[in-house]
Amino acid sequence: MMTRVALVWHMHQPFYKDLVTGEHLLPWVRLHALKDYYGMVALLEEFPGVQVTFNLVPSLLTQIEAFASETARDPSLDVSLKPADQLTPADVLFALQNFFHAHRQRMIEPYPRYAELIERRGPVTPVELTRDLARSFSVDDLRDLQVWHKLAWLDPLVLEGDDRVRGLVAKGRQFLEADKAVLRAVELELLQAVVPAYRRAADRGQVELSASPFYHPILPLVCDTDIYRHTHPEAPLPTRRFRHPEDALEQLVRARRCFERLFGRPPVGLWPSEGAVSNAVVPLAVDAGFSWMATDEGILGRSLGTAVARDAHGHVHHPELLYRPYVVQVGDARIACAFRDHALSDLIGFTYATWPAEEAARDFVGRIAEAGRRYARRTGGEEALVTIILDGENAWEHFEAGGRPFLRALYGRLAADPEIATVTMARACEAPERTLNGIFPGSWIDADFSVWIGHRDDRRAWDQLAEAKAVLQEAAGVPPDALAQATEELLIAEGSDWFWWYGDDRSSAHDREFDDLFRRHLRNVYALVDRPVPDELFVTNISTEPGDARVAMAPFALLTPTIDGEDTSYFEWLGAGRFEVVEVTGAMHQATRRRRVVGLILFGFDRHAFHVRIEGPESMREVLDQGTVVSLEFLTPAGLRAVVRGGVESRGALLLRDGEGAWLVEPGAPLPAAAGRVIELSVPIPVLGRMPEIPGLSADTPERLLRFFVTLKDPSGAEFERHPSAQPITVSIPDAAFESRHWRA
Length: 745
Prior knowledge:
The protein is of the alpha/beta class. It folds into 4 domains: 3-12 and 204-448, Glycoside hydrolase 38, N terminal domain (7-stranded beta/alpha barrel), CATH 3.20.110.10; 70-194, no CATH class; 455-538, immunoglobulin/albumin-binding domain-like; 548-741, Immunoglobulin-like (Sandwich), CATH 2.60.40. The protein has 28 helices and 22 strands. The longest helix has 27 residues, at 177-203.
């Protein structure tokens, strides 16, 4: 009796690149490539008798390629390579916030200097990161942080086997710029080694390479968001139904082409993103050339109408159902399908990190052997297929030495056990004997799609995606290159990762960044097809936390400033509301790209106008003379902008959006504006409130809310600053009782 084990490591990161700016906004592809993407396949050379399957997401592979060829950059990389004595205050704040994103016990504390630096910084939030704290780090401290931030992410094989790296680890502190150059050379070598290492492993037959759809979308939801009603018949759905199976097929076809280009062969196997399947997916997978797919045991149980139940020791009651491949048939389409053992997969992902490596490997292999014996007893001696599928990257941060002791122990035991044979998924699915007439729609999480569509934030995002898709389909007269890029942006926005982080069921330190990326991709669709970008795409979709407009202070007195662009009087802006632009250390804010222009926004009213003052570290007149355009962009009232440009005399204009989405100057509504050290402008209240100008305002005038952003665009029209970044400043137009409510003795 032999038990076959199909072990699948799933390698995936979101697509972090903004196609318009070309920047990769988070560093995780690059950092995991230095460790897990290279090390996981390289380690197998020590165990030639062990066969495994690596599931590689194509959008991950293209990002690795870009970093390997030095055509990709991310803010963390830029700050890490910059000479330490040239780091700006914003760079330092960025480094202190982002260069400790690693498992503290496993990846920071083993290195005394790295541990010392994190102790110095302390457990601060981004808002608590002050310039005083930043100044307490010397140039030598910052250079050491630049080095350790990257050293800690190197694969243990490299830490142990590369003389250059061993020398840096032994040195420990007081690194030189030359040391950083050595580390950069190692980094590039590893990035360039990833794809060839997988190709060699596949060529020697030890590894099978399977794929997911290109940008990792939830295929059943892309095919039809109404599929959610299958498991949640009473649940609310997005307002606009998203139903585009042609996009799902395109994501699969692109995955196949990517593998043919990189590995010289197409993938035959498919791990649908998040194990998400439905009857609609089956013929698409077959049409795209896939011969097997895999999903979770929960889907099998619901497809069979009987749950995959376990006893108190975790053993499956009916192993004859789970531990075999099936054929899924939908109409004329047939595809082999294996179902992962959820409990065994989770032991690696969530339990064994705290166990001694040998003990964990012994327990795991023992459970596999027991599953095979139970299966044989129920089937009269047939061979079991135990399928293990899990994340091949993130778990190892929690293991001793990056999980390498555990993996060595596991592979060694699997290779030595006479009752166990490791197989690739293609071999495991060669001859399925049972057929499922259709498959239950769901994912590996609870056999449904709630994570990606169950929260109001998810549904809002699906509505935005559907609206952008409709605009793209209706676009006419768009140059082919722009249309192709807009299509690419839409396919990226279909990815599962954006929806994963929406709602209150999943959260991370980068929720705001993922939200911003999703809306960026959709904004890019509109811009590329030359259509007005909906205002809501500039506002966060996250409803489970306040936006950054929380730092705004409301006006508490009426004021009538002199609109001259200068500090005319200390008292002229006394009582104004204020929004202070703090140093932002999140990766999305491109701290290394350019100096921040705006530092403070003041705003307030008299009985006739809404006044705004915008200032920063440099002369705002000089900023405008460089071609910068500064705007107040109003969400309420909708379709209104107040724009200030440079020239012989700084001038302002009110723009109104017409029914076609074009912005037209309102000739009968002049905008008093001036630029000197600061920008000052006044917007008449009748324009804002769409109400008659009544001095003193009658007592029954209802409260009116203004919601606005301040934006800066370069001469080409590209936006490079927006304040606040996610939520608009919201302020009430004063009513007749405003002064009495705010009267101060």
